[in-house]
């Protein structure tokens, strides 16, 4: 394993490896243990007691964080001409259809979220091999395939995030930046955790949230106590 840098080692000294921290403590520590000069992202990772190979145990959803993510989200609206003005007024960074489908086929993916209307999904389907692996394919379950284009764009811009458990049962989400107040990080984390708890599959047995960690970009992981996570 590669040796950690001096900054990381200094940050890690602020943490007791034998302790689990409350959510309040973690939101304070994640700011203190950031090791980079830029405004680092704050991430949460949850290990769930689900088997994603079974469709009825797939945990997937979206949540609008009360304080946003701190990131500038670039939105592409793939819509017919009748909806294009609505999408522009709602704040979409790119608006169009055929010209952007062609750009994406040529490899362009300089965007964070794609919003589309149901009537154009037939055209977009062929982009699955490009958009799928990057998590950019519009999906009705995440609210990015809708006729309410303006609302969908505004929600994404305001801090709506999508999440999906991976094949190992891990759920990952960015819940803010180290420049946020600890109270803002806590409120974002609580909203994310409450949403995950509501999505617990009926077929999931035993512990649902097995472990939870918070970290900043390139910073050490902070283990959260289960009691502070499941009591949301």
TrEMBL record:
Gene Ontology terms describing biological process: regulation of translation; translation
HAMAP family reported for this sequence: Ribosomal_uL1_B (MF_01318_B)
UniProt subunit comment: Part of the 50S ribosomal subunit.
InterPro entries: Ribosom_uL1_bac-type, Ribosomal_uL1, Ribosomal_uL1-like, Ribosomal_uL1/biogenesis, Ribosomal_uL1_3-a/b-sand, Ribosomal_uL1_CS
CDD domains attached to this UniProt entry: Ribosomal_L1
GO CC terms: large ribosomal subunit
A molecular function (GO) term: structural constituent of ribosome
Family assignment from sequence similarity: Belongs to the universal ribosomal protein uL1 family.
Domain of life: Bacteria
Natural source organism: Halalkalibaculum roseum
PROSITE patterns named in the record: RIBOSOMAL_L1
NCBIfam families: rplA_bact
Keywords per UniProt: Repressor, Ribonucleoprotein, Ribosomal protein, RNA-binding, rRNA-binding, Translation regulation, tRNA-binding
Name this polypeptide is given: Large ribosomal subunit protein uL1
Record function comment: Protein L1 is also a translational repressor protein, it controls the translation of the L11 operon by binding to its mRNA.
Pfam family, one: Ribosomal_L1
